[in-house]
Amino acid sequence: MRHFAFVLCLLLADDWPQFRGPTGQGISSARNVPVKWSATSNIKWRASIPGRGWSSTVVSQGRIYLTTSVSARKADPVSLRALCLSAADGKPVWDVEVFRQEASATGSLHQKNSLASPTPIVQGERVYVHFGHLGTAALNLRGEVLWRQTELRYESVHGNGGSPILVDDALIINYDGAENPFIAAIDSSTGKIRWKTSRQTPARNKFSFSTPLEIELSGTRQVISAGSGMVGSYDLRDGHELWRVRYGEGFSVVPRPVFAQGLLFVVSGFDRPTLIAIRADGASGDVTESRILWSTSRGAPHTPSALAADEELYFVSDGGVATCTNARTGNVNWTQRLEGNFSASPVYAEGRIYFQSEEGVGFVVKQGKSFELLARNDLGEPTLASYAVVDGGLFIRSQSHLWRVGK
Questions:
Q1: Among the residues of 16-160, which ranges form H helices?
Q2: How many CB atoms lie within 10 A of CB 307?
Q3: CB under 8 Å to 363, separation ≥6 — which residues?
Q4: What is the 3-state secondary structure (H, E, C) of 46-81?
Q5: pLDDT value of position 10
Q6: 3-405: what CATH class?
Q7: Domain residue extents for the chain
Q8: 198-237: pLDDT as tens digits
């Protein structure tokens, strides 16, 4: 394993507690991660998941947590549920209704979205689940609901998407709807609103679906939050904006920011996504003209987040063009078309990059400056959720099932 992985050595390799894992950046320190599999080989178990949902899997202390939405018919009330399964055999531990909403309250959905797309967070004795404009909640590990938060309302466009993050004792969440987008912090003990900050974006289309990222620069901890028209840095204490970079009319931003080698990597969203590298150290105010180190629209994703590993930055477009660049210069090392379309964010494990297509095919690529495909693995069922990685295994959520890959 390369030198950057030492940062993770103190983290439990069998825990994947949030969207994109322990660091929120898709990097795993797990060992013996599977390279080859299919729907019938190298599968430890497969569990049926009720309803519809695209939240990615989180794992802690031998248990799996995810969310789903269940309704018998289109016009019926929707049950928004949190699920807990055993990581060892996939058997249900508990299945709890967190919210029940009338169908008229849910709004319209994009064909690739669901009412249960945000990924849960598990830390200590609590699980936090988020259903966008339909509410946020905390549960204990027995599945008992501790609090519900439904005050933070906004007009959803295409449904929910971005996941919350947990920083100290606050959940920080993007609320980018049709109008008046904002970012807010919720007290993780009580569910009460800690602060709420308007995004003040110049973009005409206000809605986006990204997940924030906590970083530390020059001893200052801050939250990076990408939305329509701009990415901003926010103070953890009261939510005031520290700095911003504008990117025009880019909207429907989905990829989570990535932080590596002192640089932030963000994607500007529709209509034409641009991947932007930003020097964030010492930034203050509007730094659009002074802090962009490089940018590219070639192969930039609308949906999957990027992945930084050592000196390289990896990303895949929604249409399946995978790219490896030098992270500091943007110079392209290789570009390769993979089969299919992509929404899931790639992960790193043991010197390998794992890409998962919407059609259910996992591509395993050797890390490095030249392209080498190690395996093509077909589950035969659509997949939009991102991987969870543990010692000896991968968890992959497909349209109707959760799979544990590995023996």
A1: 103-106
A2: 26
A3: 322, 338, 339, 354, 355, 356, 357, 373, 375, 376, 377
A4: EEECCCECCCCCEEECCEEEEEEEECCCCCCCEEEE
A5: 39
A6: mainly beta
A7: 3-405
A8: 999 989 999 999 999 999 987 889 999 999 999 999 999 9
